[in-house]
Each structure stands twice: as C-alpha cells, then as structure tokens.
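Reopening this one. Same input as before:
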Amino acid sequence: MYDIRWIRENEAVFEEGRKRRGLAPLAASLFALDDARRAAIGKLQAAQERRNAASKEIGQAMKDKDQARADALKAEVAALKDQMTGWEEEERAAVRALEEALLKEPNTPLADVPVGADEHDNVEARVVGEKPKMDFAPKEHFEIGEGLGLMDFEAAGKMSGARFVILKGPLARMERALMQFMLDLHADEHGYVEVDPPLLVRDDAMYGTAQLPKFREDQFAAGEGFWLIPTAEVPLTNLAREAILDEKQLPMRLTAGTACFRAEAGAAGRDTRGMIRQHQFQKVELVSITTPEQSGAEHERMTACAEEVLKRLGLHYRVVTLCTGDMGFASQKTYDIEVWLPGQGKFREISSCSVCGDFQARRMNARYRPVDGKGPRFVHTLNGSGVAVGRALVAVLENYQQADGSVVVPTALRKYMGGLEIIRAA
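Same output, byte for byte:
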C-alpha cells in the first residue's frame, strides 16, 4: 500500500511504475481524493476550534453578566455540534475513499524488472540440469497416476467437484514425503524457522498481504469474517503485523507446510485435467522479514533455497525474471522457477519468489527499530514457494516414469518412503 505523501513527493516515479505495468496515469485522481480528505479534515478542525473558542467566550459573557451574548454563543455551539456530526461522517467517507483507492494500487516494479505485457515477455535467467532421456513416449502425470491405480479424480469429483484429487498408497505417502523433505531442508540447512500456522485468517490478515480487496473472487470465504488461506504467506507474513522488531532480529526467516485453498476464478478452461491447478493443494512456503538494505540479497538467497529442492530431486528447471505485465500485484520483482515436465513437453511454474519492499509492511504496520536508535522504519517482506508440493509430485511422476508405467522414487525421498525405490501398479 502506498503513502499518499510518498506519491505526492514521487509522482514521476509512481506514474512511471504504472506505465511499466501497462496502466494509465492515476496520480491526479488520487490527489483529488486526498484534497477532499484534507478539506474535510480542515473543515472539521476549524469547527472544533470555533466551538472551543465559543465555549470559553460563554464563560466570559456569563462573568460579564451579558446574558444575550451568552445565549447567542450557546446557540452557535449547539449549531456547530449538529453540523460537526455530518462533517465527521464526511471526513470518514473521504478517508475511506482514499484508503480504498490506495489499497487497489499494485506495487511499483524495481528498475531492473523487464518491461512486458505477459508471460511471453519474461526473461530467462538460467537453465539448470538436463532433460531426462526416454526411449518411449512420456505420459502426463494423471495418466501415470491413474495407470498405477493411485490417483482418483472421479471419486474426488463426486464428493467435491472439479479440481480435486484423491491420492492413495505410495502416491499419498510421496506427497507427504515431499513436504517433509522440503521442510527438513529449509529448517535444518537453510536457517528457516518452521511454523505451524492457522489455516483460517481474518480480513485484516488478508488485507495485510494484499489478497484483499483486489483478489476477493480468488479466495474461499469461511464465514464470520474468516478466510481459508491461499498460501502460508498470509499467516507467516502477518506474524510481523503491528510489531516493532529490533534490527538484530532481522532477517527473520520462516517456513511452513500447509494446505492452501484457491477458487481459481480466473482459470476457467485452464489445466482442467490433473493436479497442476487445484482448489486445494499442499505447499511449502518461505517468508523473510528484512531491512530495506538486506531485501535484494535476501531475494537471491530465497530463490537459491527453492532451487536447491529441485536440484536434490534431480529435476531439470529454469529460472525466469517476470516482466512487469506478468508479475504479482504486491511484488517489486519476481523470479519464477519452472520445472520441466516431459509429459507436457514444456516448463511449468513450481515456485515464485518475490520481494515486496515495504508494500505489505505499510498495510500491516510492520516496523523495526534500527540499531542506531532512530525512529522505527517499515520492514521489507519477501515470500516464495519452497516449493509447491503437488507440482513437485507431478514433476517427479513425469521425470521418473518408466516404460512399464512404474515410477522410480528419487534418492532424496527414499528415507521418507520407508526405503521404497519403485512405485508399481496397485
């Protein structure tokens, strides 16, 4: 969320950021809303000052035994009191209108983010590993899972509808193994603190990380002001909400493996078969809370931590820098990690790692106290998938499939699979 004072002082930067995102100029309309807010505040303050002054004059008039003047002043105070009720509502409405407008504005991209319209304009940063060599026509993950008798979309559809799946036996265990493997890696080797957060959060938490108000249709409401989390980014980042941290506590690195819930309102007709895009899925999330000076380096570090998951699973992948037209609402800069899927014959996103600057921190009032003792500053926040568990399962199935329909268990997962080396048909 922006500070309107920052926009006034940096109008050219703000408008250039919107232009790079492909958006029209907006500062003038925001300034108009701010002017209305200022006018309403000024009117109310002037009325309060006059009421206070008139109240004092009443005392003096009574002291001077000037009853006519005292009565006139009392009438003026009463009239001001009645008027102020309406002006207070005018002020609240003006403040609310400006805040709602600011809440809908996306973050300003960093200068080194490539300009573009959509995913076709993303820039490849690096490619890691090689495509697996197969002497047979590779299948897609849902063909493999159904062939094994361990992946059931039909039964899931009967009880829950489209975009759900039931995993059984070794595939259910592999999904659990993947999450355990990722959490152990991030907690034991990468220095993230594992957290088990709530899956239900209130409105304020969703506003804090910018899921609301813009992306309301993509969320699952749970009644009574609660929402099912679309990602553990929401509860993890909100741990810094309305807090003033000591600089020595930063960077704060947090990880969680949770179920996530997304309505996929804008995904009609996309990835309708399989596990790529579901309403409920498992994901390991990485969140960092840092100082402004640390956030750039932390972004590179977080991306490397997510990449390490794929390296240890022996998966071929690439990293791309998202262009301004494809990056997320709250992001200043995003790296997508895309894993190779032989069955589809293309790379698919398995992780996004974003630096958000102080965009979320302002919405949450999350600050820190610098070691030099000067006034509190807003923290910077970062988030990334470390990685999406369901998509990792998809990648393992497609990359480790065999001609007979069996699937080799990657070495990194075998200790979590009770030593199982190959998954065969049930």
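So the earlier flakiness isn't reproducible anymore. For the record, Residues 241 and 364 are 5 Å apart (CA to CA).
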